[in-house]
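Structure request: Molybdopterin synthase sulfur carrier subunit, Suillus luteus UH-Slu-Lm8-n1.
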Amino acid sequence: MSQPDITVLYFAAASTATGLTEQLVTLPASQYPLSSLSGFLVSLHPDVGLDKILQSSQWSVNAEMVDNVEEVVLKGGEEVAVICPVSGG
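Returned structure:
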């Protein structure tokens, strides 16, 4: 059985930290909680400050904002966006 892939879209600070705007990520399990994705992405991009960025970011899955990450389970094929807070100036 093949591992499920998702597309992660990085915006603003997350894009700057990873050096990417988009990344195909293979999930470690076929039923993967969105609440665990932060830690997984940080493990793929260690030492760039992504953990702090993700703590204050919101998620969208298939272009829909996620209110409660605990309720979302990724199964593969989703497009997941990291929406960073925008600082005004």
